[in-house]
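Dear all,

This email documents one entry for the complex benchmark we are building for the journal club exercise. For each entry we list the sequence lines for every component of the assembly. Then comes the predicted three-dimensional structure of the complex as a token string, followed by one or two observations. Please use this as the template for your own entries, and keep the labels exactly as they appear.
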Amino acid sequence: MAIMSIAEALREAIREEMRRDERVFCIGEDIDIEGGFGGAFTVTLGLSKEFGHERILDTPISEIMIAGAAVGAAMTGMIPIADVQYGDFLFCMMDQMANNAAKMTYMSGGSIKVPMVMRAPVGATTRGAQHAQSLEGFFTHIPGLKVICPSTAYDAKGLLKTAIRDENPVVVFEHKLLYGSKGNRAEKSALSPVGEVPEEEYLIPFGVAAVRREGTDITIVATLLMIYRAMEAAAILAKEGISVEIIDPRTLVPFDYETVINSIKKTSRLMIVEEDTRRNGWGAEVAAQIAEDAIYFLDAPVKRVASYDVPVPFAPVMENFVVPSSGRIVEEARKLMKL
Amino acid sequence: MLDKTESKKILGLYEKMFLIRKYEEKIYFLFLEGIMPGTIHQAQGQEATAVGMLFDLRKEDYMTSTHRPAGHCLAKGVSVNSMMAEMFAKRDGCCRGKGGAMHTGDISVGAIPAIAIVGGGMPVAVGIGLSCKMRKTDNVVVCFLGDGATNEGAFHESMNAAAIWNLPVIFACENNLYGASTHISKVTKIKDLAVRADAYGMPWEIVDGNDVIKVNEAASRAVGRARTGAGPTFLELKTYRRSGHSRNDACGYRDKQEEKEWFEKDPLTICRKYILDLEAGSIEDLELIEKKVLEQIENAVEFAKSSPSPQPADALTNVYFEGGI
């Protein structure tokens, strides 16, 4: 077992897949310029030493082109791993993602595959509103895309390898405060969790949730940074005699409802915690699906804890207020227990 | 006097153009009869651009198209039967009834299902060019775009990327003067769109897009450069559509004198004149070709009509790749 940060685990996944399959290549802005950053969060740092700049392809600042080029390359025999420096930039390439990546297999009547990966860092990190948004909701709404959110080093490596081998476009949301980026790319107030990553190869299938903590009173479904906030909250609640079960779906499309339903059969209470804004988010979808399929297992209404429906503000005091904190989760959990 | 090979080629060019003209006319009448769902964006008048650009390509070369794809697809070798069946929304359609007129294509002959967002195919063509290069093939991609696409952001990003990476992409800009109803002069200060390529350090040519020989010669130069690693070319093909932008468009925004002048420069008439003047073929040869094409189209209509309709719930398949056809 090696101990790795998420950035290192992602890099290892890319390295192994590029060694395994010469069709795999990386394309993005500043991904491995000499003396540069290795992408905004160091994930691709140094890969050009082994693979050269033809397979670690630094691009102009051209998000439409990056996404479209990934689609074109994927349709014709390559496996691109594209990335944006900040998730917010995905909006620049929305036509390519929503109209071409997501629809090409379908429009062709199933004759074309688009095996591409689009990596995007999300999460509020005192950079203001345009380098902060969590965009999972937008992308889970588009038929034809798969959406994954690794929150540990182990998952980051195993899920990214699965994404690279998937024959469909996969959007990977990674959290800026979880990367564990080092040097001058280190994030203030980052959690930077490190974790054990096996030496031997492994893949993590999509649509299989991980139970991060077992409990009997409340089921919390969360992703990315919110997993860690929920874990902090669960530790506080445990002292008050409230036992929290925490489920990390790991992939939002496809979504593992079975694990969630099995959990609420035990706890009878469901809370969904997401950093994305609340209105029409993936949490709303999970709440609705549970209401349709499993409402009789619940003893209380489903509770959503999400970012408020505002752009992400800059001032730390406001940003901390908007994004769900462990304190807010604790408070809402206490209320939920009284219902 | 042309030699035998040249004569055969020019007759071949005429046949493809005649096929496109008659296919589109047939679609128009079938559409008027109301037996075809959807909408149509037709390519009558733009046959020389499609055929001139694509006639010499290999099956392994690629082509990206636009919302006006029928000519491009026929010229790239998509079967008439499967295109017609797609127009009838049938299961044997080239997209199994899931694409429709604006997404016509067949990747097995290198015709990427048409991308009907203006400019949207350009970055995809960059990726295809990148793929051809990275896989160390000498295949190329012809990327069709209209005059309107030159004002899209995707145009800028794609032109620049193709140029800096020296990709085997040929941008074939069919300047038919109108983006839907808007004349290009209303939305663009320059007269020749091709000069924009200078801004990217990309070679360009301005070509009479209604003269299939001239288009074909320009295509040959551009494809030659692309195949030998000399990079992309931008071709501005000056042309004109004989049809409206889409169905039920009487072209009230077009000057009648302008229409008259362009209609006189009809690509089929120009090609016929070449054939007869250069004695590449006789009137009888042309009639034989025309008869063959008309039969091909009638057969395609029969094929399409007899093809089964998809089942409603077929709509739920192919959202993700299921192993191909």
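Observations: The two ends of chain B are 47 Å apart (CA to CA). The mean pLDDT of chain B is 96.
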